[in-house]
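> call design_seq(struct)
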């Protein structure tokens, strides 16, 4: 049976696993690859666990507890849309927006703006160009630095900033969605 194994498929799977491992652990793919070549288990940084906000203000959102959210530490990588949306639901709970119309409207809003992609940009110019960026499509993206230095890649930081922005500017995701529908921006 061993002769039926496709070495390219095995190598591709290995590379894919290195990408996933590096993303989950917050390390680089290169350092993970070097560890594997040296016969060591790949390691990664665990210095940036996702924090759950303890209140509805930006200060409390950025200084919440240090308990990782259910499902593990996904803080330093762009998860799938489903992972980022689940993270958003957990973070929106501190605002009372994780169920009902407010949650539904937040999902519609960020589905339309970014597809819940932490690397989404309204052009090919990237996060530091002054274009709208990230899950909430902050314009410019650098505004999200007020929620954390890892705003370019951390969905939790972006979501915390976006929730605080919606609360401050519109009061609720439902009001933000209504503005989006009327004006094609929020």
């Amino acid at each position: 049976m061993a002769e039926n194994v496709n070495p390219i498929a095995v190598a591709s799977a290995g590379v894919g696993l290195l990408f996933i491992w590096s993303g989950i652990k917050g390390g680089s793919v290169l350092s993970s690859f070097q560890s594997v070549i040296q016969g060591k288990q790949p390691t990664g940084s665990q210095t940036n666990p996702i924090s759950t906000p303890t209140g509805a203000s930006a200060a409390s959102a950025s200084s919440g507890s240090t308990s990782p959210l259910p499902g593990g530490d996904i803080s330093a990588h762009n998860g799938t849309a489903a992972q980022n949306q689940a993270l958003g639901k957990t973070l929106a709970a501190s605002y009372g927006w994780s169920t009902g119309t407010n949650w539904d409207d937040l999902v519609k809003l960020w589905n339309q703006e970014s597809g819940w992609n932490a690397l989404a940009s309204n052009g090919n110019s990237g996060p530091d160009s002054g274009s709208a960026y990230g899950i909430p499509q902050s314009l410019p993206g650098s505004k999200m630095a007020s929620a954390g230095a890892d705003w370019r890649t951390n969905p939790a930081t972006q979501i915390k900033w976006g929730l605080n922005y919606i609360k401050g500017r519109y009061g609720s995701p439902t009001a933000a969605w209504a503005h989006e529908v009327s004006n094609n921006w929020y």
